[in-house]
């Protein structure tokens, strides 16, 4: 075996130490990288778990908001339905009171100018029509309501309805079941039989469609709604 030269020994030791340092550094670096990789994986797992939790939280929030939206939509629909029902009820009340124009089937009762008719005869016919379930009545296109005034104007010697003179021929229009309305007028011993005694024979006709105007709104001064207890 050859003897190492004097200068080779320090070089050998130097390379040996350098190799050891490189080995230690490599292992340290590998360990560090391994720890770093492991640390990043844990961080990713933690972040993923947090994302899942956030996702679940958002889904619960979306579900809650969806329920609130459905409840709100139901309330809006109920409110719209209530408003629609109230409007329909208001319209029915206005029609019944004569505050809006109306139309429908019914009958007409026409008095000629020649018979000696008086305003009480007109009132009798109207009352009989109400009793026969008439839903709306007009005299010569003047709507008859609960506040209608029918009287004989002595100055003009004319039938007067709510201050308006009614010329003859005078026609009463009534909306309702045509058969029932006519049957009510033609009852034995009824209003038409009473008029026939005085040779008054009004012409009664059924109509598929009648149109009646609205009445003038009454002036209310003293009437007040009673407060519910």
Automatic annotation (TrEMBL):
Q: Name one Pfam family in it.
A: DUF881
The record, for Gene3D superfamilies, names: Protein of unknown function DUF881
Q: Which family does it belong to?
A: Belongs to the UPF0749 family.
Q: Which residues form the signal peptide?
A: none
Q: Which organism is it from?
A: Thermacetogenium phaeum (strain ATCC BAA-254 / DSM 26808 / PB)
Task: Point out the coiled-coil segments of this chain.
Answer: 41-68
Instruction: Name the InterPro entries on file.
Output: DUF881
Instruction: Please identify the protein, giving its name as recorded.
Output: Division initiation protein
Q: Which UniProt keywords apply?
A: Coiled coil
């Amino acid at each position: 075996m050859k003897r190492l030269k004097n200068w080779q020994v320090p070089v050998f030791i130097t390379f040996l130490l350098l190799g050891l340092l490189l080995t230690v550094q490599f292992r340290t670096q590998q360990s560090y990288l391994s720890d770093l990789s492991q640390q990043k994986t844990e961080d990713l797992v933690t972040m993923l778990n947090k994302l899942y939790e956030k996702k679940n939280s958002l889904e619960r929030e979306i579900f809650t908001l969806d329920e609130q939206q459905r409840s709100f939509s139901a309330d809006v629909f109920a409110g719209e339905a209530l408003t629609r029902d109230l409007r329909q009820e208001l319209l029915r009340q206005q029609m019944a009171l004569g505050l809006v124009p109306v139309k429908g089937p019914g009958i007409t009762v026409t008095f000629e100018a020649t018979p000696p008719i008086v305003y009480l005869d007109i009132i009798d016919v109207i009352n009989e029509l109400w009793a026969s379930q008439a839903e709306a009545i007009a005299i010569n296109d003047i709507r008859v309501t609960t506040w209608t005034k029918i009287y004989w104007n002595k100055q003009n010697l004319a039938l007067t309805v709510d201050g308006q003179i009614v010329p003859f021929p005078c026609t009463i229009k009534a909306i309702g079941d045509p058969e029932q309305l006519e049957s009510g007028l033609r009852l034995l011993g009824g209003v038409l039989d009473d008029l026939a005694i005085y040779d008054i024979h009004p012409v009664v006709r059924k109509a598929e469609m009648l149109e009646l105007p609205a009445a003038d709104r009454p002036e209310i001064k003293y009437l007040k709604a009673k407060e519910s207890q």
